[in-house]
Design brief:
Radius of gyration: 22 Å
Structural class: mainly alpha
Order of helices and strands: HHHHHHHHHHHHHHHHHH
Number of strands: 0
Distance between the termini: 21 Å
Helix content: over 70%
Shape: globular
Strand content: under 5%
Largest sheet: none
Length: 397
């Protein structure tokens, strides 16, 4: 009974993950509670201990707790620890209860939900429906563009991979399934372009090239073909949404003036990165402690007041770079545990017998390595749940 209930809760988690913060938290909480009340602890703990990624995930969470010892702001530190519960609880628990035979069902639950997200986004874009606070020039219905773009880019990759992994006989015999994947792949591809999140568009480009090299080989020809296809796709997006051109022009201007103009999205990120590195240099081995970043950052801002814009806020909880945040708060010590998390995911992906699971796991790894350069994606609800859910499915044995 518990096994069946777990199965349906995992399906429900995949479905609610892109749609609802409250819904995702509720189902994740139920999965965790069920794990503790359903018994059979020896087998479940053995499954966790036999999975190096599950161990790495728990250790990554544990280092956040340990760094409370030298934190200067325990309250904020505990708040940060709570945001990392996906790594300490959800990932190990999911890995211990997921059965290989159900992996495709869990993936499809997520893809069906993302089909709803993408459909709603297109309806807003064409002004067929209206949602309060959502502009048709950047139609992201259930989350901000920071989370929406990467989720849709990853959806494009998974749906395309599942589609092209079928042979001709399977395509003909599973028509509804194949049509669903075709539509989701195409509409996701252009949805990334019409929404204005730069991170999502960069991840889309990376995954598009990865997809081509996985299917057509790592050759100059396949990469050139992928580059030409990306040019065509963005050109169509350019025609569909004039704001894309404005966004592109602003991005180029911001990059050119990144050292002089700090009152832009990229300019502020640059200043925060430099300041975070200053915090790290003063405490390179163990950092300032989890939750202590805002105070340490403010001190650096005051010290560098002549070098940065006076209109920038003195304090921030998040430097919009996961590596900078961990380096500042936990030093090299914390970065080692983060890199170990990536390494164990890569190692397990190599051992996957299922070629599709191997490729998706690698794609997720590459995506989050780059995403965490642009923001602290392991702290965001949608992005952290996305990582926990999909990677757990791929690496569970």
């Amino acid at each position: 009974m518990f096994s069946i209930l777990n199965h349906y809760l995992i399906i429900l988690l995949g479905f609610l993950l892109p749609l609802s913060v409250a819904g995702g938290n509720l189902i994740a909480g139920l999965i965790i509670i069920l794990w503790f009340v359903s018994g059979n602890y020896r087998q479940k703990i053995t499954s966790i201990l036999n999975n190096k990624f599950a161990i790495a995930s728990f250790l990554f969470f544990l280092i956040h707790i340990i760094s409370l010892i030298w934190s200067q702001d325990i309250d904020l530190g505990i708040e940060r620890v709570k945001k990392m519960l996906e790594f300490g609880l959800l990932i190990p628990i999911l890995i211990s209860v997921i059965h290989s035979r159900n992996k495709h069902k869990y993936l499809m639950s997520f893809l069906i939900s993302m089909a709803i997200v993408v459909t709603a986004s297109w309806l807003i874009f064409f002004q067929v429906i209206y949602i309060s606070g959502i502009n048709h020039t950047n139609p992201t219905p259930f989350s901000s563009h920071i989370s929406h773009g990467p989720m849709v880019a990853i959806t494009f990759y998974i749906s395309s991979l599942l589609l092209f992994s079928q042979n001709w006989k399977e395509l003909k015999s599973r028509k509804l399934y194949s049509i669903f994947l075709v539509l989701l792949s195409v509409f996701s591809m252009f949805n990334v372009i019409i929404t204005l999140g730069r991170a999502g568009q960069i991840i889309f480009v990376i995954l598009f090239i990865l997809f081509f090299t996985q299917f057509f080989g790592r050759s100059i020809k396949s990469i050139s073909l992928a580059a030409f296809a990306i040019f065509v796709i963005f050109s169509i997006g350019w025609l569909l949404n004039s704001n894309l051109q404005n966004k592109f022009d602003r991005t180029i201007t911001n990059i050119e003036n990144i050292y002089q103009d700090h009152n832009t999205s990229l300019g502020r990120r640059f200043v925060m990165l430099v300041n975070s590195f200053e915090v790290f240099k003063k405490n390179p081995f163990f950092g300032v402690g989890i939750g202590s970043f805002p105070d340490a950052y403010e001190k650096v801002m005051i010290e560098r007041s002549q070098d940065v814009s006076q209109t920038m806020a003195l304090r921030t909880k998040n430097p919009h770079n996961m590596y900078a945040l961990i380096a500042a708060e936990m030093g090299v010590f914390g970065l080692i545990f983060l890199l170990n998390l990536y390494y164990q995911q890569f190692k397990l992906a190599q051992y996957q017998r299922n070629n599709i699971h191997n490729r998706i796991s690698i794609a997720l790894l590459i995506s989050f390595i780059f995403l965490n350069l642009s923001d602290s994606y392991f702290l965001g609800h949608f992005s952290s749940f996305l990582y926990a859910y999909l990677v757990s499915i791929m690496v569970a044995e």
